[in-house]
Design brief:
Elements lengths: L10 H4 L2 E4 L15 H6 L1 H7 L3 E4 L3 E2 L11 E5 L6 H13 L3 E6 L9 H6 L13 E2 L2 E2 L18 E2 L13 E4 L4 E4 L14 H16 L4 E4 L23 H4 L5 H11 L7 E5 L5 H10 L3 E3 L8 E2 L2 E5 L4 H15 L4 E4 L9 H4 L7 H12 L5 E5 L20 H14 L7 H7 L36 H5 L5 H14 L1 H5 L1 E5 L6 E8 L2 E8 L5 E3 L11 E5 L11 E3 L4 E5 L2
Parallel strand pairs: 1-2, 1-17, 2-5, 5-11, 11-12, 12-13, 13-16, 16-17
Antiparallel strand pairs: 3-4, 6-10, 7-8, 9-10, 14-15, 18-19, 19-20, 20-24, 21-23, 22-24
Length: 577
């Protein structure tokens, strides 16, 4: 049994993180794009909500080909978002309210407009040539050359080094006429991958990270950090995997060496929180990254439950039993080995109430259930902006209404491949596009939801007159109020942070029930993940003699779980004594 002395108390384990996508948070200049002053203006709102850490998505200088994840200068603030003085003001405003600041850092790739890449492509003899992945490609005869230039960019007598694909579609290799070679980009063509095998690259990154930590930030979220190690020779990727090539460059041959060095050279010198975004890992791998010095990892296994046979740009139904199995595996197998980074949505995923709940009749109830779930698991919860008021997915009537390059590339390819109009894919876009999370935060029922006085960079979701912060803060029964109550409960209850997790009723198709235990403290979480009334019988292994209700999203919830019948999407937490 876990005891309080065994929990190894740490501030980042006890924190709740609020993720801000600045472009869509609040615009103070009228240009239609959110900015740093807008974030600073709402710090009191975050303080009132009760969050402990702000994770700020990239605001560095960037041509914005991938919404700031294509960095052209790591040490400058993009004028789109403000100035370094604005950033410093935000840092100080957060710290004055005891809210820490974690910066998003993109160290797998840069923009092709970064000085490093410009030097790398200027000459084969340049000292930075080896800072990126360059390859002359494979020579072929004109008869052998593919005719589809999008699949095989480059001159007619050359093809890419291998069949690796970009996350955003097409080849992961782009031909550069200036140096007559291909460069590797596992994401956008304007995001060339850095060559971490070069020690000068690593030292330049470490120096940059130290620079930000010396400016007073409290940690990093490291973007796709397990992509850093590419194998020598760039072998062909598997054609069985949804994203061809990832079986080589995810968790590559030197990745643990790089992470240990990063920890020794930078992270170990600061009281900083570090979260590594890591697609394609399992709990054992997460534990090994923890041993390398990363505090926690974002895994993606639960994010693929609704993927179809053709992968991410296909849909299938998900089952609660599958979600229970995945989440419970991570809760159980990281116990005593590593720490979970908890999330249901972020800037790359659909809105959680539309994906995992019911954004129609039971929007409020299911949004509260999802909040209860997220904030009662073992790990550090990450709440994405707008989820605290139950924001939903949007309806993109045309591809022209989207802004996400990943959506545009993949859906354009599907339309061409199947010779079908956008309308055939509209439902898929409305469910899958990253733009769903990037529509502006709905502050009030005024024009553009109070986000901007100008024309917003992306359309506001139509339901903003009903779903907005202003109305939620005035309603004691709102989703926002439930989040606030849950945050207070978690802050006051060590068992919700450090307690062991035990799944009950694993095969029940409607109820997700688990127990949290820390020493003599026992809590029971009961979630009816359905639109039906469902009876709950207390399992024999659970004693409810001294039970009392701590929180519920229904006012009429019984004070004990004995003979409980749960309403649609009812969520309740009991103290078992």
């Amino acid at each position: 049994m876990t005891t309080q002395t065994e929990t190894d108390r740490t501030w980042w384990k006890e924190a709740v993180v609020y993720q801000i996508y600045p472009r869509s948070f609040l615009d103070t200049t009228g240009d239609g794009v959110g900015d740093l002053q807008g974030v600073a203006e709402r710090v009191d709102y975050l303080d009132e909500l009760g969050v402990d850490v702000v994770w700020l998505c990239p605001v560095y200088e960037s041509p914005q080909a991938d919404m700031g994840y294509d960095v052209s200068d790591y040490r400058a603030i993009d004028s789109l978002f403000g100035t370094m003085a604005d950033w410093e003001d935000l840092r100080d405003t957060l710290h004055d309210r005891d809210i820490r600041l974690v910066m998003d850092q993109v160290v797998n790739h840069t923009s092709d407009e970064h000085d490093w890449f410009q030097a790398s492509r200027s000459s084969a003899d340049d000292s930075k040539r080896d800072w990126y992945h360059w390859h002359p490609g494979q020579a072929v005869s004109e008869a052998e050359s593919p005719t589809d230039g999008t699949d095989s960019p480059g001159p007619p007598d050359r093809v890419p080094p291998n069949n690796w694909e970009s996350f955003m579609g097409g080849s992961a290799w782009e031909w550069d006429d200036r140096t007559e070679a291909y460069y590797l980009h596992t994401y956008h063509t304007k995001q060339p991958d850095l060559n971490w095998a070069n020690p000068d690259v690593r030292e330049a990154i470490y120096e940059m990270l130290r620079w930000w930590l010396e400016k007073g930030i409290d940690g990093f979220r490291l973007d796709v950090v397990n992509h850093l190690s590419k194998p020598e020779g760039y072998p062909d990727g598997s054609t069985d995997y949804d994203w061809v090539g990832t079986d080589q460059f995810l968790n590559g041959p030197r990745i643990h060496e790089y992470c240990r060095e990063l920890s020794a050279e930078v992270l170990s010198e600061y009281d900083a929180m570090t979260i590594g975004e890591m697609p394609g890992i399992d709990p054992d791998q997460a534990a090994s990254y923890s041993a390398d010095g990363l505090d926690m990892t974002f895994q993606f296994e639960h994010m693929s439950l609704d993927y179809g046979a053709d992968g991410r740009w296909d849909r299938s139904e998900w089952a609660l039993t599958d979600l229970k199995a995945v989440v419970s595996k991570w809760q159980r197998e990281l116990q005593g080995e590593a720490w979970n980074a908890l999330y249901l949505g972020n800037h790359d995923q659909a809105r959680i109430v539309s994906r995992f709940g019911d954004d129609g009749e039971y929007r409020e109830e299911s949004a509260k259930l999802l909040a209860t779930f997220l904030l009662t698991l073992r790990g550090t919860p990450h709440v994405y902006q707008g989820d605290e008021i139950g924001m939903t997915n949007a309806d993109f009537a045309s591809l022209a209404e989207t802004r996400d390059p990943d959506t545009i590339n993949h859906v354009s390819a599907l339309m061409a491949e199947r010779d079908e109009p956008y309308e055939a894919f509209r439902e898929l876009v409305n469910a899958r596009s990253r733009d769903n999370a990037r529509t502006p935060v709905q502050w009030d029922d005024s024009d553009h939801a109070g986000f901007t006085d100008g024309d917003p960079w992306i359309g506001v979701t139509d339901n903003y007159t009903e779903i907005n912060v202003d109305s939620a803060r005035r309603d004691p029964g709102s989703v926002w109020a439930h989040y606030r109550e849950l945050l207070e409960l978690r802050a006051d209850t060590d068992a919700l942070v450090y307690g062991e997790y035990e799944l009950l009723l694993p095969d029940d198709p409607n109820l997700y029930v688990y127990r949290r235990t820390l020493g003599e403290k026992r809590l029971l979480v009961v979630l009816n993940w359905s639109s039906e009334r469902v009876p709950f019988t207390v399992p024999d292994v659970v004693s409810v003699d001294d039970a009392s209700l701590l929180i519920s999203n229904y006012g009429e919830t019984p004070p004990t779980p004995a003979d409980l019948t749960l309403s649609p999407y009812e969520a309740c937490v009991y103290d078992l004594g």
